[in-house]
Every structure is written in structure tokens, then in C-alpha cells.
Design a protein that fits this description.
four-stranded antiparallel sheet; 0% helix
Length: 71
């Protein structure tokens, strides 16, 4: 069940080469367990597997997801 609170999380997005994308990453605020954020995806984004990692700044809990970019 989502936490009914406002919490800071650290979001890291890495390209297929494993490089941190500072322009897409940073501290975000989760409200009531949900983070909703539109991303202006780079037109020159590399093909391959991208990774999103999220870490709760208070508890240290973390999770990640990957997806493939194909043009």
C-alpha cells in the first residue's frame, strides 16, 4: 500500500552505455506513493537498454526498471 505522505526520491536514468543522464535525473518528490513526471525525451537518444533507478532518500529503499529504445 502506498505511503500517504510526501517523500523525496533520487531518480537516475542511465543510457545504454551506463552513463548517468544528468539532464533526466535528479531529486523528485513522490506524493502519496506516486511519482508522475513527464520527460522530454532526447531526440538523439541512443538505441538500446535504458535504466531508471529510484532510491527513497529517507529509508534507502530502491528499485529499478529497464526498457529498450528503438528508432
Amino acid at each position: 500500500q502506498p505511503v500517504q505522505n510526501t517523500l523525496p526520491v533520487q531518480v537516475e536514468i542511465r543510457d545504454p552505455d551506463g552513463r548517468l543522464r544528468d539532464d533526466l535525473s535528479g531529486t523528485r518528490i513522490v506524493e502519496n506513493g506516486v511519482l508522475v513526471r513527464g520527460i522530454k525525451w532526447p531526440i538523439n537518444a541512443k538505441n538500446g537498454k535504458w535504466t531508471l533507478a529510484v532510491k527513497d532518500a529517507i529509508s534507502g529503499a530502491e528499485d529499478q526498471a529497464t526498457w529498450d529504445v528503438k528508432k
